[in-house]
Amino acid sequence: MEAAEQLFARKGVAGTSLGELAEAVGLTRTGVYHYIRNKDELLETLVQGFTLPTSQDVQRLAQPDSRPAIDRLREAVTNMALIVARHPQRFRLLLTSEGALPQPLAEQHLQARRQTLASLKDLVSQAVKEGSCRPVDPELAAFSLLGVANWVAFWYPRRTGAGAATPELVAAGLTDIALGGLLANRAPSGTEGVSYMVGLLREDLDRLEGMLKDS
């Protein structure tokens, strides 16, 4: 996979042959077929290594349980950012290879992405209802959280050296920042979700009135 990442990044999927992949890993072309049948199988590995596990994880966390929704939302965003931080080049390759995915795999990939977004929206809605998040647009919030996690692939590899944070620290730190804009100012109460929502709406109205007075 590492050799494929480098070759695909330089030459694209269509421009890379299995012979070149074999040479990059020190195998004969025949030897490569012991591990993979074709390039489509490599692309399938990409999807199964990122898109599908992420979707399944977020769907699992969106199922209500005894934990507060905000804790499950935090775990979902952290997990998304962590897998990207651990394999940034592989994730970038997945993004640039979407157009080369075979039709059945492309449909599977797209469906998993849609399920991830829907589950994130559900988690945000649950957090708003329980009072731990401000009354925000769940879809807008979900897209924002996805963007925070996915963008790690484009800047984190550049942070090298002794002072560079580990993927785990990066994922946790980004999640804290991302959720900071959603969290309510007060701790949620398990039986007063509606009251908290009304209180937060009043706070937003007060903030809006202040902005109008200053304008």
Give a short overview.
The chain is built from eleven helices and no strands.
Describe, in plain words, how this protein is organized in 3D.
Residues 187-191 have low confidence and may be disordered. It contains eleven helices and no strands. With 215 residues, the chain is mainly alpha-helical. The protein folds into two domains: 1-37, Arc Repressor Mutant, subunit A (Orthogonal Bundle), CATH 1.10.10.60; 41-214, Orthogonal Bundle (Tetracycline Repressor, domain 2), CATH 1.10.357.10.
Q: Count helical runs.
A: 11
Cα(first) to Cα(last) distance is: 56 Å
Number of domains: 2
Secondary structure class reads mainly alpha
Average pLDDT for all residues: 84
Classified in CATH, the superfamily of the largest domain is Tetracycline Repressor, domain 2
Which percent band covers the strand fraction?
A: under 5%
